[in-house]
UniProtKB/TrEMBL annotation:
GO biological process, one term: xenobiotic detoxification by transmembrane export across the plasma membrane
Any Pfam family matching the protein: MatE
Family in the record: Belongs to the multi antimicrobial extrusion (MATE) (TC 2.A.66.1) family.
Compartments it resides in: Membrane
NCBIfam families named among the record's database cross-references: matE (TIGR00797)
Superkingdom as given in the UniProt entry: Eukaryota
Membrane topology: Multi-pass membrane protein
Identification of the protein by name: Protein DETOXIFICATION
InterPro entries reported for this sequence: MATE_euk (IPR045069), MATE_fam (IPR002528)
Length: 511
């Protein structure tokens, strides 16, 4: 008789059947199977030994990717946060302007560019796993072209930020100050356009630690330059935003130097190529699907705050929600790191033709992220009565935050699963499907349900947030079901066909 644990895990280890023999030209890419795939396929090993060895191999691969990625996202978050702190010391108007420019206008470009950049994860990750190393540099250049062109209409939005903010109801004083701050962020748009493809290009190869070192060094330089620009030179808002743009270009420049100088990128970067200009439209379509998928998630929780501003006592609701969102945003960086790791692991294994490894990676990364999220939620609940005092000394707000902490804990647990499943989707190339799921769950269910509970049933902020959680839970269940039902052998074949299709579009490959 099998144990219960063995019965639960046996489908992961044994349900994926070996692939049929591949043509010799493709099989040469897979002459050396991954150690993980060998262990999972070795039925001669006792079950628990197989599970133990496979788990150890996967955990080493996972944390080597996730830990530096978490650090990179935390540092990037800290750069924008520190800029707001510097502006806040200039006065309340400057703080409002920087917050509006960062959280409103800049977040739009960040979400769009990061989302579009995730298309590189799908292609580069699968190409690297398939040993088609020369294609990674082509995908990097193609993505940079597409994102740079996308930056042009984004620049127009930045230039017109003042009338747009006035149209949205902001005061003339705040809109004018925010526009000055936003003008200094225009160079940052194009830094995003280059940075995110480079970041995904490196992540696909498992090169994450150098980006963490570069980001850490840049943060130190950013703090020093911000202090000089804002206080010593008296450049105010425009100085602070220009330094933020410069810091992102420092990161870009350092990563370019690394790619050109590192031995690790010799096979994946062969220099500039005209091949990058082929297939731009198809690449743009997948990039847009990726961007929609990410932006719909980002905007979802922003809308929560906007709706809360319509309640009868909006000040307490907004204060308590902003504190909870700040905690969620900080801890969300951990989930984003696992999102990146999941995308890389799944795309690499699919490209390499390892269905068992891809399925096992999905299980392990979700399990680890879920455990971390549960620990985070438990800590938040244990500190529910005092956690708000890190942000404010108001007792009324502290009580409101304490009242919302159970919902915060549920959100943190869901954030331990949902972003990781989105990373799996990126690794498989399911961005368009997830975008449709997000529209239905978030905007057709979550927001209307939140408004119904918050206003019709007079549950206030708790009602709005409960509805939003309902949408997130629905989306998570759908992604869990789709992932559980996935035929990983079929995904390997889809990955191979996708890579073959894109290689066929390279004119210089056809002699």
């Amino acid at each position: 008789m099998k144990s219960t644990l063995e019965e639960l895990h046996e489908p992961i280890l044994n349900s994926v059947q070996p692939l049929p023999t591949e043509p010799e030209a493709i099989a040469n890419h897979h002459e050396t199977d991954s150690q993980l795939e060998k262990v999972l396929s070795d039925t001669k090993l006792p079950y628990f030994k197989r599970l133990r060895l496979a788990s150890w191999i996967e955990l080493k691969l996972l944390f080597r990717l996730a830990a530096p990625a978490v650090l990179v996202y935390l540092i990037n978050y800290s750069m924008s946060l520190s800029t707001r702190v510097f502006c806040g010391h200039l006065g309340n108007l400057e703080l409002a302007a920087a917050s509006l420019g960062n959280s409103g206008v800049q977040l739009l470009a960040y979400g769009l560019m990061l989302g579009m950049g995730s298309a590189v994860e799908t292609f580069c990750g699968q190409a690297y796993g398939a040993h088609r190393y020369e294609m990674l540099g082509i995908y990097l250049q193609r993505a940079t072209i597409v994102l740079t062109l996308t930056g042009i209409p984004m620049t127009v939005i930045y230039v017109l930020s003042k009338p747009i903010l006035l149209l949205l109801g902001e005061s003339t004083e705040v809109a004018s100050a925010a526009a000055v701050f936003v003008y200094g962020l225009i160079p940052q748009i194009f830094a995003y356009a280059v940075n995110f493809p480079i970041q995904k290009f490196l992540q696909a190869q498992g090169i994450v630690t150098p980006s963490a070192y570069i980001s850490a060094a840049t943060l130190v330089a950013h703090l020093l330059l911000s202090w000089v620009a804002v206080y010593e030179l008296g450049l105010g808002l425009i100085g602070a935003s220009l330094v933020l743009s410069l810091s992102w270009w420092i990161i870009v420049g350092a990563q370019i130097v690394y790619i050109l100088m590192s031995e690790k990128c010799k096979q994946t970067w062969a220099g500039l190529s005209l091949q990058a200009f082929s297939g731009l439209w198809d690449f743009f379509r997948l990039s847009v699907a990726s961007a929609v998928m990410l932006c719909l998630e980002t905007w979802y929780f922003q809308i929560l705050v906007l709706i809360a501003g319509l309640l009868e006592n909006p000040e307490i609701a907004l204060d308590s929600l902003s504190i909870c969102m700040a905690i969620t945003g900080l801890l969300f960086m951990v989930s984003v790191g696992f999102n990146a790791a999941a995308s890389v692991r799944v795309s690499n294994e699919l490209g390499a033709g390892h269905p068992k490894s891809a399925a096992f990676s999905v299980f392990i990364v979700n399990l680890i992220s879920f455990i971390i999220a549960v620990v985070e939620a438990a800590i938040v609940l244990a500190l529910r009565h005092v956690i708000s005092y890190a942000f404010t000394s108001g007792e009324t707000v502290a009580e409101a935050v304490s009242d919302l902490c159970p919902l915060l804990a549920i959100t943190l647990v869901l954030n331990g699963i949902q972003p990781v499943l989105s990373g799996v989707a990126v690794g498989c190339g399911w961005q368009a499907f997830v975008a449709y799921v997000n529209v239905g769950c978030y905007y057709a269910v979550g927001i209307p349900l939140g408004c119904l509970l918050g206003f019709k049933f007079d549950l206030g902020a708790k009602g709005i947030w409960s509805g939003m959680i309902g949408g997130t839970m629905m989306q998570t269940i759908i992604l869990l079901w789709v992932t559980f039902r996935t035929d990983w052998n079929k995904e390997v074949e889809v990955s191979r066909k996708r890579l073959d299709k894109w290689e066929d579009k390279e004119p210089l490959n056809k002699n």
